[in-house]
Amino acid sequence: MSAPVRSWNGLPQAAHARQLALQARDAALPTPDGSLLAHGNGRSYGDSCLNDGGTVLLTRGLDRFIAFDRARGVLRCEAGVLLGDIVALALPQGWFLPVTPGTRHVTVGGAIANDVHGKNHHVAGSFGHHVRAFELLRSDGSRLLCGPQQLPQWFAATVGGLGLTGCIVWAELQLMPVPNPFMLVSERRFAGLDSFWALNAAAERAAPYTVAWIDCLARQPRGIFSSACHAPPQPDLPAHRAARRHMPFMPPVSLVNCLSLRAFNALYYHRPLAPAPALRHHGGFFYPLDGVRDWNRIYGRRGFFQYQCVLPPSTCRDGIAAILARIAASGQGSFLAVLKTFGARPPAGMLSFARPGATLALDFPNRGAASLRLFADLDAIVAQAGGALYPAKDARMPASLFRAGFPAWEAFSAFIDPRFSSSFWRRVNP
After folding, report:
1. Are the CB atoms for 204 and 249 separated by under 8 Å?
2. Boundaries of every domain in the chain
3. Helix, strand or coil for residue 58?
4. Angle between helices 369-384 and 316-330 (to 10 degrees)
5. How far, CA to CA in Å, does 180 sit from each of 96, 103, 199, 231, 289?
6. Buried/exposed code over 281-319 (b: 16+ C-beta within 10 A; e: otherwise)
7. Is 386 left (phi over 0), alpha (psi -120 to 50) or beta?
8. Which residues are within 8 A (CB) of 137 and not within 5 positions of it... i.e. 6 or more apart?
9. Which of 201, 197, 196, 199 is nearest to 215 (CA)?
10. CB under 8 Å to 249, separation ≥6 — which residues?
11. CA 127 to CA 116: how far, in whole Å?
12. Dist. CA 216–CA 205, nearest whole Å
């Protein structure tokens, strides 16, 4: 019997009627009773990858490379290929993902369906901006070849469309050239959000990658700001051995609590910073948590929530300050608190999350009613600021906040495959 399909944070629970594997890109979709939803590697947080009471179509079996133009960096692969598989193939040949999220354990289909973003939105936009084409398999058996110039409306609906327009079976991506696997990384401590905004503005003019870790339990927000670029060609590169750590068990309670957070945050903030710029392997910069297998287990059996918002440029400074002040007052700090800005490039898809402004991503242990009360307060700040929450990292946003944050939702609805649905979509469209 196959293991139950879950999201990465373990919330909410879902009982799927069936789990069916799709192994070949030329196969027809099954026709089970009820609704259908494609499910990649399960790295979404919340219920956008779940279909409670329906069928999930497991796409990891679509894991083959189709073609790679090594001269131009154009890669065609099946939708179940992991981003890490692409890096392993392309990086030794001088190519890298133009946009990558904080984990390499994401399928290409999932990266498109959630239009993932990275630390370089101000120069490269989101993942969908680098998709040249994909094939969309609909439940009626039709196959649509979509791209920015071919069926552009279907392309825009599917990029960021949460897997609701059908099943992506293959995609063609434009990769970016890089000299080697290393980065030049600069780090600086900051105290106060004014310092963050100043550092970020200067760094975005000089570096393609920018991001900050925030200590959101501190009375005055503080953190470490990082900027980076790909290292130029070098005669001698250091040897690299990937760390292999593992969280071997699921504790009965979360190991992340107020005491452990305060201790961790103090140690991390005051850790020695390498002289800038420091030569670092790309894995440690882009995918630090991938170095700990099953790290999500540290939150225990009750799971955890991720809360990621984006606020527009006109309100983001005051809004981010208000959110961090509310979190600090609650004592419910976040182990992973990441603050960065998005550039001015228009979204690639109708429901794309990344848009001009600033985004704050936070993880919280599931404390039941106390967590939900905090999130309701944060929702009010986000709504007043004209912001939005990221569906790929949500397990409880109200329908009103979704519709306000994604005003194209109604036009998008016309492109939904009539056989496809998800727990998330039913929740925000009751």
Report:
1. no
2. 182-236+244-405
3. strand
4. 160
5. 9, 20, 27, 7, 22
6. bbbbbbbeebeeeebbbbbbeebbbbbbbbbbeebbbeb
7. left
8. 29, 143, 166, 167, 168, 169
9. 196
10. 297
11. 6
12. 26
Q: How many residues can be counted in the chain?
A: 430
* pLDDT tens digit sequence for 192-248: 999 999 999 999 999 999 999 999 888 899 999 999 999 999 888 888 888 789 999
Tens-place pLDDT, residues 67-126: 999 999 999 999 999 999 999 999 999 999 999 999 999 999 999 999 999 999 999 999
* Inter-residue contact 213 to 172 (CB < 8 Å): no
How far apart are the C-alpha atoms of 34 and 56, rounded to whole Å?
11
Which amino acid belongs to residue 244? R
363 phi and psi, to 5 degrees? -115, 135
Q: Specify which residues 47 forms β-bridges with.
A: none
Residue bearing tokens 């056989």: 419
Options 3.40.50.300, 3.40.630.30, 3.30.70.2520, 3.90.79.10; which CATH number does 182-236+244-405 get? 3.30.70.2520
Beta strand 36-39 with 55-58: parallel, antiparallel or unpaired? parallel
CB 128 within 8 A of CB 319: no
